Amino acid sequence: MELWIKILFAMLMLPGLFMMLTPLLPGIPYMFLMATLYGVLDGFQSFSPWMIAVFGGFVILAGLVDYFAGVLGARYGGARSYSLKLGFIGMILGTVIVPPFGSFVGLFLGIVAGEVFRIGWRLPALLAGGISLTGALIGYIINILLALAFLITFLIVLF
User: Fold this and answer.
1) Is the per-residue pLDDT at 46 higher than 90?
2) Contact of 25 with 19, CB cutoff 8 Å
3) Cα 1 from Cα 88, distance rounded (Å)
4) Three-class DSSP category at 47
5) Please, what is the angle between helix 81-97 and helix 49-76, to 10°?
6) Residues above pLDDT 70, as percent of the chain
7) Contact status, residue 158 vs residue 55, Cβ threshold 8 Å
8) Which among 4, 1, 3, 12 is positioned nearest to 154, based on CA atoms?
9) How far apart are CA 52 and CA 154, in angstroms?
């Protein structure tokens, strides 16, 4: 395919990276969509359909990291199911009210509120929220690294 189209699709990957800076936005799925669109338009001459499977692996891995980072952190911190539900609601509300990092505050406050309701104002309630927040932040960093790896892989295959 012509060089200008390759450059265009390389630039179309950049919004996916910026989406990764705001939790809950689908940065890597967007990047996957752009890679798949390029492959279809190119007739899979620049990369094979197997490469789409590799890019799909990035999407699956990012989804698993999103899910397990916060949940495992909360579980490790001692949070119960009710607190996890409140944390999820807080994460969504936090993103809407105070983007881009309100999701972390909302997650923390939701889990702490759930644990305070369950056990009262005790240190384990704050600990559950803090460990969950730590897990979510680690997952956030891992997903940014996955998005960078996706972009680098796409650029190497493209050029």
Assistant:
1) no
2) yes
3) 44
4) coil
5) 120
6) 99
7) no
8) 12
9) 10
- The vertex-62 CA angle with 82 and 10, nearest 5°, equals 145
Rounded-to-integer distance, Cα 108 and Cα 102, Å:
10
Helices of type H across 1-122 = 3-12, 14-20, 27-42, 49-76, 81-97, 102-119
Amino acid, single-letter form, for residue 66: D
CB count, 10 Å around CB of 50? 9
Amino acid occupying residue 39: G
Indicate the residue type of 124. P
Q: Token digits for 75?
A: 């579980």
Helix, strand, coil percent content, the chain, rounded in steps of 5? 85, 0, 15
- pLDDT for 109 beyond 70: yes
Q: Which two tokens stand for residue 48?
A: 């094979």
The residue ranking higher by pLDDT, 37 or 98, is 37
The CA distance from 48 to 61, in Å, is 21
What Rg do the C-alpha atoms of the chain give, in angstroms?
19
**In whole angstroms, what is the distance from residue 44 CA to residue 34 CA?**
13
The rounded distance, in Å, linking the Cα atoms of 133 and 128 is 9
C-alpha torsion 93→122→71→111, nearest 10: -10
Q: What's the CA gap between 45 and 1, in Å, rounded?
A: 8
